[in-house]
Amino acid sequence: MAEAWDVNDDSGSYSDEVYHEKSHQEPIYESFLCPLTKQVMRDPVTLENGQTFEREAIEKWFKECRDSGRRPICPSTLKELHSTDLNPSIALRNTIEEWTKRNEAAQLDNAWRSLSSGSSETDILQALNLVQRISQKNRSHKHVVHNAEVIPMIAEMLKNSSRKVRCKSLETLRIVAEGDTDSKEAMADGDTIRTIVKFLSHGLSQEKEEAVFFLYELSKSEYLSEKIGAVNGAILILVGMASSKSENLLTVERAEKTLENLAKCEINVKQMAENGRLQPLLRLLLEGSPETQLEMAACLGELVLSNDMKVLVARTAGSSLIDVMRSGSLQAREAALKSLSQISSYEASAKIVIQKGILPPLIKDLFAVGSSHLPMRLKEVSATILANLVASGVNLESIPLDLDRQTIVSESVVENLLHLISNTGPAIECKLLQVLVGLTSSSMTVENIVAAIRSSGATISLIQFIEAPQRELRVTSIKLLHNISPYMGRELADAFLGTAGQLGSLIRVIQENNGSLEEQAAAAGLLAELPEKDPVLTRRLLDEGAFDIVINKVTRIRQGETRSNRFVNPYLEGLVTILSRLTYVLERELHAVTICQEHNLGVHFTDMLQYNGLDRVQTVSARALENLSRQSKHLTRIPVPRDPGFCCAIFPCFNNEPAIIGLCRVHGGICSMRESFCLVEGKALAKLVACLDHENGKVVEAALAAMCTLLEDGQNLDAAVQILVEAEGIKPILDVLTENRTETLRYRAIWAVERILRIDEIAYEVSGDQNIGTALVEAFRHADNQTKQLAEKALKHIDKLPNFSGIFQKVG
Questions:
Q1: Which range, of 100-114, 239-253, 272-286, averages the lowest pLDDT?
Q2: pLDDT tens digits for 697-726?
Q3: Contact 35, 51 (CB under 8 A)
Q4: Are 792 and 748 in contact (CB under 8 A)?
Q5: Which of 556, 555, 568, 564 is nearest to 524 (CA)?
Q6: Distance of CA 788 to the CA centre of its chain
Q7: Is the C or the N end of the chain the one with fewer CB within 10 Å?
Q8: What pLDDT sits at residue 584?
Q9: Domains delineated in the chain
């Protein structure tokens, strides 16, 4: 009998006697062993001298003899051979095979008992090693393992408390499954696959590696692929592992290959797409059968894609989806449109599908009538896509839609959009209004849209959406009207005055305390762009109580009671502009004067001069102060002289009036910011002077205009100039003159300088400043006639031009 045939394991080795005792196997006969390998022979062959060897081993021996230049000899007898012919020992081979089957059956029976009873870890590992050894011989041996019904026992070992046992069980099941369909299907019974998946997320590193290797093997079966995909979370975990940066490279590769196998099942492809792995779906979308393509497109339309995925789909399948949208069946077009709606919602992917030619067929679908037209539910999707494309910022006006070279901003196309808006449901109306909002947000296209609105007479119908019950539709219409209001302010004002309800609706939007700040900002912006000097519109706003509401909102924002977001500043700009309307009707509307006084608006506007970064708020506040200040000379309270009485007439010594203190130096009466809107008494001058250094010329112009009201006729010019000196305002005004930013600003500066130079002391000081002289000379030479006349007067004050009027007065 030969030496022991050891079965090695992590737990040690067993001698032949111990193993025989545990497994009840038949002894290994000496004739079964190859003298060269000392292993049981599988393909025994006999030499001319009757010695038997394993074919592979003796062929290797002969090769070594030839390579060394020796004559072939028998390894056992060491005698020279005359022939190296090998004769198969069929009888011995059959005997060995029968012995092997009996022996393996006994071993598997012992393994089954070890796996089914409360065996030790060592016994279980020994049994698993045995199953591996048998399975690795050839496929027929795997059938022996399968028939011995040890697979369910091994699967149960996956729940063992020993990590070694769990890992060895995973490895054993994989080895048994390799290349054997019957064994794989046996493993699909019960919760084996679910248990394996758990190892992917909860197992330790080695268990995880064995589990993914095992799943890869199982995934080669299409039947098991569907089973694996049906386990909750399996595909998501594998997708995560395939893209992991922390897993070892081999695990990542096996996860990737497993997913490739699982992708052969369409239901798995959908799951992968839902979990961010889109390539298999896109492949089927491009290469699958028409039915598969339709199914994948429909799936794609229902997915919520990340921005990166949208770009991937646009690049990979954008053209195919557009082709389907153009000429597919109604069902296919619906799937394609839904997919394109998703893709177009991200700026980068929207640009890609625009480049691939989506715009012409999309517009055609929207405007189509008759048998080929889309149902309204799909026109809504088309309108959504178009709104997304416009929002992407691409220069759509350069893309021709037909052979006539019409574009999306051509008058007839915009008129068709307006017609659709008036004849569809709220959902489509909202999306098409969003298209117009996008087109009117660009300075390059807004005038085309305005022209089409005018030519189609759509102003009234657009205004009516302000009263829509659907918030999104209402907000979108207000934003559109806000965008076109700088170009159609007069038409919009007339439309508001000619209809009932819309103006009140806008005011109610502003009034809501819990309303959408975006909607409120758009409503305030729209009202702010209407002609500010229109007394009829201002009267309507007064009647609606709009200004009390606006004052309340401005106060809340200034006090920090309004939540801060990106719409707060535009909202405040609109509110302040609406409020400033009051200051343009002070002469004819006593109610407007009363509101300004009651709410002390002069102080509000003065404080808002310091809102750096909000140029429009500063500009509007300064203009409002200009209008208020012009009323100061009418509102200042001039003290009435006391009646001297009879005694004073007889005795003049009693007629001495006591001096009145506290009178305004400019207006000569009792002034305040609240009652008479006096800039001097309201301490506004210093803040106006600070605005003269602003980089925005409009702020400077408005601030200077407000300051100039103190220098106007009918007031004490000397006192006004002195107050400007005290406020350190003379030099900033002169600086504005020398900077010469705009013609309007130059005129305003020269007007102020000419008034200031009427004071001899200042004229004398300024006469030596060459920069001032040069600026006035330039204006005298090159400015318009009105500015030129002012410059001439100023030059005379500083003796740069002869003052002939003084000579003529002396001669007279």
A1: 100-114
A2: 999 999 999 999 999 999 999 999 999 999
A3: yes
A4: no
A5: 568
A6: 55
A7: C
A8: 95
A9: 30-88 (3.30.40.10), 728-805 (no CATH)
201 vs 754, higher pLDDT: 754
Residue 45: which pLDDT band, with cuts at 50, 70 and 90?
very high
**Could you tell me which of 763, 739, 736, 762 has the C-alpha nearest to residue 749?**
736
The pLDDT of residue 172 is 87
Q: How far apart are CA 685 and CA 664, in angstroms?
A: 14
Give the tokens for residue 590.
Answer: 């006593």
Determine how β-strand 44-46 pairs with β-strand 12-14. Answer: unpaired
Is the pLDDT at 10 greater than 70? The verdict is no
Which two tokens mark 189? 């019974």
Question: Is the separation of the CB atoms in 510 and 550 below 8 Å?
Answer: yes
Residue 338 makes CB contacts below 8 A (sequence gap 6+) with 297, 298, 300, 301, 302, 381
CB 715 within 8 A of CB 671: no
Residue range 46-99, pLDDT digits in tens: 999 999 999 999 999 999 999 998 999 999 999 999 999 999 999 999 998 888
List the structure tokens of 635: 């509102």
**Burial status of residue 651 (CB atoms within 10 A of its CB: 0-12, 13-18, 19 or more):** exposed
CA distances from 623 to 534, 729, 730 (A): 16, 18, 20
| Residues 683, 686, 688: CA angle, nearest 5 degrees | 105
Q: What Cα–Cα distance (Å) separates residue 378 from each residue in 41, 156, 332, 385, 428? A: 74, 54, 12, 11, 10
Task: Tell me the HSE value of 34 on the side-chain side, using a 13 A CA sphere.
Answer: 21
Token pair 């389907």 is found at 324
Name the nearest CA neighbour of 343 among 289, 401, 285, 291. Answer: 285
Query: Where do the H-state alpha helices sit in 263-375?
Result: 266-274, 279-287, 290-302, 307-327, 330-343, 347-355, 359-367
CB-side exposure of 107: number of CA atoms within 13 Å? 26
pLDDT of residue 641: 63
Query: Alpha helix locations (H) across 87-233?
Result: 90-116, 121-135, 139-147, 151-156, 163-177, 181-188, 192-202, 205-218, 222-230
Confidence check: pLDDT of 476 > 90: yes
Q: What is the pLDDT of residues 111-130, one digit of tens each?
A: 777 777 678 888 888 888 88
* Per-residue CA distances from 704 to 615, 745, 746 (Å): 15, 9, 11
Task: Examine the pLDDT at 238 and tell me if it is beyond 90.
Answer: yes
Q: Is 524 exposed, middle or buried (0-12, 13-18, 19+ CB in 10 A)?
A: buried
Q: 């022979």: which residue's tokens?
A: 41
Start-to-end CA distance of the chain, whole Å, equals 157
The tens digit of pLDDT for each residue in 153-181 reads 888 888 888 889 889 989 888 888 888 88
The CA angle 71-72-73, to the nearest 5 degrees, is 115
Residue 180 has φ and ψ, to the nearest 5°, of: -125, 105
pLDDT at 149: 76
Q: Answer for the pair 444, 397: CB distance below 8 angstroms, yes or no.
A: yes
Question: Are 713 and 758 spatial neighbours (Cβ–Cβ below 8 Å)?
Answer: no
At residue 520 the predicted structure's pLDDT band, cuts being 50, 70 and 90, is very high
Residue in 485, 534, 482, 539 with CA at minimum distance from that of residue 510: 482
Question: What percentage of residues in the chain have a pLDDT greater than 90?
Answer: 58
Sheet holding 52-54, edge to edge: 52-54, 44-46, 87-88
pTM to 2 decimals?
A: 0.73
CA 333, 334, 337, 338 dihedral sign is negative
